[in-house]
Amino acid sequence: DLDTARQELEEFIPHVKNISDSSIKKMAGRDLMRFKEFKKQGIAVKFGRFTQKENKQIQKNVEEFLSLTGIESAEKLLFTWRYPEDKDTIHRLKTEHHFCEKISEGIPRPWRLIYYRARKMFDPNNYKGRYTKEEKEKLKKYQALHGNDWKKISELMSRSNLSVAMKFSEIKSAINYGSWTKEETQKLMNAVKEVMRRKLKTENPSSLSSLEQSNTDPWIDREQLYQQLPWTEIETKVGSRYWRQCKQKWNSILTNKLNKGQQLYRGTNGLQAKINLIKRLYETKAEDASEVNWDELSNAFGDVPRAYVQAKFYRLKVSSVPLWKRKTFSEIIDYLYEKKLPELEEEL
Known about the structure:
- The chain is mostly helical.
- 65% of the residues lie in helices and 0% in strands.
- It folds into 4 domains: 2-122, no CATH class; 133-172, Arc Repressor Mutant, subunit A, CATH 1.10.10; 182-259, no CATH class; 267-347, no CATH class.
- It holds the Pfam family Myb_DNA-bind_6.
- GO terms for molecular function: chromatin binding.
- Residues 123-171, 172-254 form the Myb-like domain.
């Protein structure tokens, strides 16, 4: 029953209480047995960015399913509504050959996330380059006609749902690309504070009461929330900035607040911090950046957010690793460990 399914899923998905009943029913059918099998193998259910290894597994699963069923392309398989004449046949083949199980094979994530990732990977409309002036005008016209029905608009424009939604968010109002004014920064702070308070009230009412009794800004210290903030809502509240600008500015504010003036990357402290960063990344044996526990790593360098350490790593690889764009994540780490680390230790 529904309550039992929710309780069982809670072991694997901590935020399951916020998931709708209809989604719980689907997850109970598609995911619960898979999650239990992964648990037996000692594999935890994952969220967040997909790794290169997982992307390859999705590609393999899709190709094998196409070969098994004879469906001509991944686009037909994943965007069946674009081929109305073949729709019934494709749906029948997907049911007969257990599409849900096959597409998620070997990937410890909820089926829905795997399906969305596959659609993003195989949608030819995702990779069409910059929008022309004509396309931008069309987008504004279609949005006025159809509202935020991005699926409908994406079909009219032959662009992906995500692409048209993001582009409209970018062009719907005049965006300022200069330095942030004090007024804009204050609007951003107020917007973030408002959504954080709402989030805190939902998650932990007692935290909100202590928050309101304090004269300080303890809400800033909940830096883990910055990743889940509703940036399009914050963009609307700020009014003069695109959502990505708001997110970047917030990360900058967050870093300044949490760093509290510590100059971690200057002088001998800077050399030691780089040495520690390279050693810790090497010890993780990660094949992809998404496999690194950046929160844990950032705690080792002081009270700084993960974005701060990620930015320092980016600068380190750009300045130290030749042709880094052609190297895999693990190759970059190996180069830093074998070539750059001895130089830094000698300099220190």
